[in-house]
Structure prediction request, 234 residues.
Amino acid sequence: MADIFLIRHGQASFGKENYDALSDLGKQQAVVLGRSLASTIKPTQLICGTLNRQQQTLEGLVTGYEQVTGSSLELPVQIKPEFNELDHTNILTVHDERFADPEYMKREILTQPEANKVFHKIYTQAIFNWFEGKDGDYTESFDEFYQRVTGAVNNIISNAQSKERIVVVSSAGSISMCLQDVLGVSAKKAFELNEVMANTAVNRFVFNGSGKLNLSYYNNFHHLPMADVKVTYR
Prediction:
């Protein structure tokens, strides 16, 4: 048997000018995650997407891991854009062209009472339209996104050795595609799983020589409350 640990990035900078960067809390979450992993596994591969928040999370994870072990992990980081998140901005803009203006979000959404709820309602409808291919052309269709992520996981499996412990830092949307594939659920159900996935949550998948992938556990974020670190979902 071998393992793939699909890990969501730490808290990003929601509502800030540059979302694609970890908040101070997100950086702390990543280090705490690394400390926790040091007591349970020895990674054989380190993989992440090209997004800053993913790479910063992996950096923090390695820092925390090495703090506990007292030695360098000495593994090259493999950068694979296949594990990047879905294009939220494009999906929102196809749904409502006003999101093409970078200031619209701050001016019209974030200034409202309960801004998170307002945004979530709009975002959910945009995502459901994307699932169904509604509202126009997308830079990446839902089917293309699904194939991108699941294809990358299958490629890892086909090249893995027995008893590997492969750590992949990705994003909730990407990880939910693997959940959809393994569990055989609908895209909407996968989105619901995505919505409750905590920052730096660990999702463990196992596979054997036949390449069949199975879910071992989902959304494990016990390392955060155990270290008295806040649990976040955005």
User: Anything to note?
Assistant: The beta strands are 2-8, 45-48, 77-79, 165-170, 202-207, 213-220. The two ends are 33 Å apart (CA to CA).
